Amino acid sequence: MESNEFSLEDLTHFPLFEGIQASELEALLPCLDGYIRSYPRNSFLILDEDSVPYVGMLLSGMVFMLKEDENGHQSLLNYMLPGELFGESFSLRKKKTPSHVSFLAARNATALFLPLGKIMRSCEHHCRFHRIMNENLYELLAKKNAHLMQTLDILSKDTLRDKILSYLQLQPIESTSPQKPSPHSEAARSVTIPLNKSELAHYLNVNRTSLCRELAAMEKDGILTVSGNRYSLLVS
Questions:
Q1: CA neighbours closer than 13 Å in the CB half-sphere of residue 17
Q2: Cα separations (Å) of 98 from 6, 57, 64, 69?
Q3: How far is the C-alpha of 77 from the C-alpha of 35, rounded, in Å?
Q4: Quick check: 200 and 211 in contact, CB under 8 A?
Q5: Tens digit of pLDDT per residue, the chain (236 long)?
Q6: What secondary structure does DSSP assign to 86-134, as a single string?
Q7: I need a surface site. Which of 42, 124, 134, 216 has the fewest CB within 10 A?
Q8: Cα 210 from Cα 202, distance rounded (Å)
């Protein structure tokens, strides 16, 4: 199951297939009846009325999980980056019902789709690589659940400032050098986030103007500096 963009060797570097060789993957994927598909930016991978028989693993780009209310307002519930799963909660259901959320390509995206039931069911040959994939799947599901709990924790904060700080503190550290000198700091915890300011505002459930105003106030107070998608939390 190779695509023009991803070879079997490329797929072995994704978390779901960690510890599995390309030759083993070549035997495994046809058994699972999966497929790879690419989507242009702003197109839907899954609509809220769709049943979801397959779990998706993002290979490139970024995907938003959106919920639309009866008034047409969309909430950004979560976002997925390469290597992460989406749609797994719905594909596990015995009775196929609509997902009630949509998955949108926030960037040009490519995803691998696999029937979750076949992944979790041991094959008759008891292949070593099938067992490894199952273990990797459980690890990914655990990480996904932890990420959702982190999102709930961020959104439960009382103030926008606390929400911003909680989100930034959960991102991988890029460096420990301050982006620019500050009288209030000797070092900085720098991160580059995948979301632009409009997307971050959507994720935090506020409007962009409020977010930009609060970021400017935080810079003035010597809490952080911002340059595009790069944020440096100043440490006194």
A1: 24
A2: 30, 19, 17, 15
A3: 26
A4: yes
A5: 556 688 999 999 999 999 999 998 888 888 888 899 999 999 999 998 888 888 999 999 999 999 988 888 889 999 999 999 998 887 766 666 677 899 999 999 999 999 887 777 666 666 788 889 989 999 999 999 999 999 999 999 999 999 999 999 999 887 544 444 444 444 578 999 999 999 999 999 999 999 999 999 999 999 999 999 999 998 65
A6: ESHHHHT-SS----SSEEEESSSEEEEEEEHHHHHSPPTT--HHHHHHH
A7: 124
A8: 11
* Cα distance between residue 133 and residue 194, in whole Å: 27
pTM: 0.86
CA 51 – CA 158 distance, rounded (Å): 36
Tell which residue, 182, 177, 179, 152, has the closest CA to residue 167.
152
